[in-house]
Amino acid sequence: MEENKDIKILSSKKTNIADWTSCKSTAQMLRKAQADQVETAFDRAAGMKPCPIGAKSACCKHCAMGPCRLNSKDPYAKEGVCGATIDTIQSRNFARMVATGTAAHSSHGRNMLNLLKGVLSGKIKDYTIKDTNKLNGVAQSLGIETEGREVNAVATDVCTEMERVFHMTEGEIPFVKRVPPKTLETWRKLDIVPRGAMLEVMELLQRTHAGMDQDYQNLTKQISRTALVDGWGGSMVATEISDILFGTPTPVHGEVDMGCLKEDHVNIIIHGHEPYLLESIVEAVNDPELVESAKAVGANGLNLVGMCCSGLEMLSRHGIAHAGNFMSTEAVLVTGAVDAFGVDVQCIQQGLVKVGKCYGTKIFTTNPSCRIEGAEHIEFDEHEPRKCTDAIVKQAIDRFKNRTVEIDIPRNKAMGVHGFSYEYINYMLGGSFRASYTPLNDNIINGRIRGVAGVVGCVNPRVKQDWAHIELVKELIKNDVLVLQTGCSQITLAKAGLCTPEAAFYAGPGLKEVCEAVGMPPVLGLGACVDNTRILIACAEMVKVGGLGDSIADLPVAGAAPEWYSEKALAIGQYFVASGVYTVFGVTFPIIEETKFHRLLFENMEAQGLGKWGFTADPHEMARLMIDHIDQKRAALGIDKARERTLTDMADRREMQSA
C-alpha cells in the first residue's frame, strides 16, 4: 500500500465481512483492505446508522421553516409547520426522487440523441450507424416510412421524432405508439400520458416547492407521468440509439468476476453508463501502436475490463470481461492490478479516489457532469474521442511500468451467456422466418412457464451484497418463472453461474424443458439498467401476440429490485408500476405503512388499472409475493392449474453454490 495522508484509517474494531457480501472476490479484497487499514463503503455503512425518520420519508426540509420531522409510529399525530400532512410530505419526497432518477436517464438519452445527430450531420466522424435493421424497426414503430429510403433520411426522421421525447410541451410522446391500446386507454383516462421529459420533470419539481401541490393523489399522477416519460421516453431513446449506433446485442460468451484481471497485462477498467466512451476505448486498446507501447514496458498486452453498466454494454456487444457490480468498484482497486480506472456518469462513488490513491491507481473522470475532487479529469469530446481514451491508455501503460504495490488478484471467474435483447429473443423463439413471441405466450398458457419476472437493479451495502438477488432468482426459476435481468443484478447472477444454458438444471421441470429445447439460460441478461426498456417492449409484445390479456396489467409478470439504492431505481420502479407491473423492492422503502399515500401506491393504483408496489427485505418472501401475483394473473386469465410453490431447500442451495 502506498503511503497517503489523505486515507482514512479504520479503527481497530473488527467487523464480519461474511455479513457484508456473498461475492468471494469482494470479500477477499475487503479482508485485504482491512489489513491495509483502508476504508471502503462497507466500512462507512457499518459505522453510520441510517436516520430512521429519513428512511421512512417522515421529514421535510423543503423550506426554512423546517426541517420538520413527523413521528413514524403515529404519523398523523402532528403536521409540519406549514400544516403539511405525512401524505403530502412523503409524496413530495417520493416525487423528488422520481424526478431526479428520470432526469438522469433522460440526460443519458438526450446525449445519445445528440451523438446520432452529430453522426448524421457529418460533424462526428468516429461513430457510424451499425444496425440499419434496428433503425428501420424503430422508425416503423414510430410510423416513419422506410421503404426505398436512404439510411440517413430515415435516421433524420427518427431523430426528429425522438427530439419530441425531450422538448414537446403538449400531446403524447412518440413511443406511446408501442404501448398496448388498453394500457394507453387507462393512462388517458387517468391523465398520466407523458409529454416531453423536460416539461414533466420541471412540472413535478415545481409542484414539490413549499406551498404548491398538497394533494398526494394529484401529485402521484404527476409522479407517474414523469416516471413514464423515463421508461417510454428518455431511457427508451438511450437504448434504441445505442443499438442503432453500436449494434443490437446478440448472445456472446463473457467472463465475469475479478479473476479477469491479468497481472502481466496493463489493466484498464471503464465504469459508468454512456456507451460512446467505452466504444472508443475498445478501439484504443486494439490500436497496434498502443499495444506495442504496452509490450515495450514489459506487459503482455492491454486488458480492458468493465464494471457496472458500462461494463454490461461492453459485455453484451463485445464479450469483454466484467470485473463486478457497483459495490465491488472500490474492492477491485485493492487488487493493486488496476492501472487506470475511467468513469463517466452515474453510480460513481467518491470514495474511489481515496482507495485508488492508496493502491497507486488513478481515477479518471471524463464527463463534465461528473467530476470528483482529487480525480484527474480528461474531458471526453465525441468529435475527437480518441484524445481522451488514448490518454487513459497511455497513463495506464505508464502506471504499469512504475507499479510499486503488491498485486493480489482473486482467482474467481465465471463464464456466462450475455447480450439478449427484445429482437434476439424474438429470433431465438421463432427463427429468421417465424420470429415471434408466440412460443413464449404458448408456453405460459400451457403452464410450462409459470410467468416472467424482471429482477433488476443495484446492490446496497445496507444488506449482504448479491445474496438477495441470488436467493430470489433461485426460488423463481425453481418455480418455472423465466427471469429477465439488467444492471448490477445481472452481474450478480452471472458470478453465481446462473447465466448459462446449463443452469436450466436448477429450474423447475417446465422452464427446464423450454430452456433445453431452445438452448437458453433460465436467466436472460438484457444489459444495463437503462435497458429495462427492453422489458417494457417485451411486455407490450406479449400483449400484442395475444392470449395473455389486453393490457400489461393482465400479464402474469412481476418485477423486483432486491438491493436498490438510487433514485434512478425508484423512477424505474414507478414506470413499471404505472405500466401495469407488480414491482417489489427490498432493503427499505421511503414510506410509512398504513398511511393514505402508502395505500395508494401499494393497493389503489392497481384498482385504477395499473400495477402496484410491494416491499420486503426477505428474498424468499419476495419470491412468494411475486409467484402469488403471477398465479393470480393466471387465474384471472383462466390458464391456472393446481400447483404449489416449490421451496429451495438447503441441499439445493449447497448444490448450486458448489456448481
Report on the biggest sheet. 6 strands, parallel
Q: What is the strand arrangement across the widest sheet? A: 6-5-4-7-8-9
- Radius of gyration, CA atoms, in whole angstroms: 24 Å
- What is the highest CATH level, the class of the largest domain? Alpha Beta
Could you tell me the number of beta strands? Answer: 16
Terminal Cα separation, in Å?
Answer: 35 Å
What's the helix count? 24
Stretches where pLDDT falls below 50 for ≥5 residues? 2-14
From the helix content, strand content and strand pairing, which structural class follows?
A: alpha/beta
Please state the average pLDDT score: 94
Number of individual domains: 3
State the shape: globular
Percent of residues in β-strands? 5-15%
**Under CATH, the topology of the largest domain is which?**
Rossmann fold
Helix content: 40-55%
The CATH architecture designation of the largest domain is 3-Layer(aba) Sandwich
How is this structure best described in words?
The protein has 659 residues and is of the alpha/beta class. The protein has three domains: 161 residues, Substrate Binding Domain Of Dnak, Chain:A, Domain 2, CATH 1.20.1270.30; 144 residues, Rossmann fold, CATH 3.40.50; 239 residues, Rossmann fold (3-Layer(aba) Sandwich), CATH 3.40.50. The chain is built from 24 helices and 16 strands. Strands 6-5-4-7-8-9 form a six-stranded parallel sheet. The protein has a six-stranded parallel sheet with strand order 13-12-11-14-15-16, sandwiched between helices. Strand 11, helix 17 and strand 12 form a beta-alpha-beta unit. The longest helix is centred in the first third of the chain and has 36 residues.
